[in-house]
Amino acid sequence: MSRVCIIGAGIHRFGRTDGLSGLDQGVFAVRAALADAGVSWTDIQFAYGGSDSAGNPDTMVERLGLNGTQFINVKNGCATGGSALFSAQMAIKSGEFDLGLAVGFDKHPRGAFDAKPAEYNLPEWYGDAGFMVTTQFFAAKIMRYMHLYGISRRTLGMVAEKAFMNGVHAPHAWRREPVALDTILDAPMVSDPFTKYMFCSPGEGGVALVLASEKKARELGVKPIYLAAATMRTRPPASFEVFAPSIDIGGGTATATRLASAAAFEIAGIGPQDIDVAQLQDTEAGAEIMHMAENGFCNDGDQETWLAEGRTRINGQLPVNTDGGCLACGEPIGASGLRQVYENIVQLRGSGEGRQVPDSPRTAYSHVYGAPGVSAVTILKR
């Protein structure tokens, strides 16, 4: 099997961009990635693209060029971007292709996501009872976790404080002003224990990555970032997931994230202790905390000490969400998982400026999680 490399990365800033469609932002990201890789659209042999609410990604060929390039659409909840990347790397790993593209974009309307029960094979009464409101689900999940493992509400606030502090230094971030911890904790409550600063917002943005075989990267004379692992998993029995109608008390600890993470580390031949920087799904502040443990970086409950000691800050033991994550960048579903990988490429190239992790990181990890319980993980090496 061919070793997979990422040789180009492009991003359209996240947030709100009046006058541009989601597709416009995706095309912008593709052109930036092609320029970064030093290749043209006519060189690309295939593409996988994801969008949740901004149209079919394959229609961007009208802008990029009608040359018959194979282009496949991907839609997989918040894991759409990670799933597009997983699919693209498989095409190169198989040896059938040498140069391809993964792209994701979205332009969500203002307000919370409006999921429908039928989209997740649930009865209408489930929505009528309010169970489709994701803010309530995430609040219930973290309240249970806080009770089981002794996580304080102050620690939730520290996750958000770190996110906004990191976002200041990320040109692509939406929220680029620091927010004081007391302001975060004292802000209006959305769903207990989360205040408004502890949730991400649906937004806009686009990200594209150019993938190549190792042979092709050498031919192009490009210094690549190696895709050491890319995995995607769905939920196992008894896991507590978005839109899961019930939870099995005393059930197992397996989750889609734990499965995807374990598989990624096995493929890459390394462990959590070998990762220098990580981007973890932080739909809300509690998600980052729970995902630290689910991805194997600490034990359940250790997050209280990790955050208090600053271990996940830029200069900490394991910098997490160095561009501010979803909390600072917002979450355009199609682009969000690819943004994490883009940020890791920036870190491995040493071009993060004010948010750059010190000591030249060599390994980087990204994890995205979405409804109704799907996770995608990637590990990069340089």
From TrEMBL:
Pfam families: Thiolase_C_1. InterPro entries: Thiolase, Thiolase-like, Thiolase_C_2. Gene3D superfamilies: 3.40.47.10. Residues 253-379 form the Thiolase C-terminal domain. GO terms for molecular function: acetyl-CoA C-acyltransferase activity. CDD domains: SCP-x_thiolase. This is Thiolase family protein. It comes from Novosphingobium umbonatum.
